[in-house]
Amino acid sequence: MIEKMELTMINGTVHHFKRGEFGVEMIKVDKEKCVILVSFSEREFGKREIIIPLQNVEKCEYLLR
Q1: What contacts 24+ positions apart, CB below 8 Å, involve 44-49?
Q2: How far is the CA of 21 from the CAs of 10, 44, 62, in angstroms?
Q3: 3-state DSSP call for residue 11?
Q4: Can you give the pTM of this predicted structure?
Q5: CA–CA separation, 29 and 36 (whole Å)
Q6: What is the strand order of the sheet 35-40 is part of?
Q7: What is the pLDDT of residue 50?
Q8: First-residue to last-residue Cα distance in the chain
Q9: Which domain CATH number covers 17?
Q10: Which domain holds residue 48?
Q11: Which of 29, 36, 45, 57 qualifies as a FRET site for 8, CA 20 to 30 Å off?
Q12: pLDDT at residue 4, as a whole number
């Protein structure tokens, strides 16, 4: 399971995701679909998920636990 991840996008922006921080529940790399999935805990407005295409990622570092 991925504990934390740092993404550098092709446009130069950097994103940090860490399980338990800001409601992040799960970080997953789906190599078949070529996407990174980040799921957040459910809040009053519903469940939030982020889908990041791997083609937009220049560099990805992550820590497995």
Answers
A1: 48/23
A2: 25, 18, 15
A3: coil
A4: 0.86
A5: 5
A6: 24-30, 35-40, 49-53
A7: 95
A8: 6
A9: 2.30.30
A10: 2-64
A11: 45
A12: 95
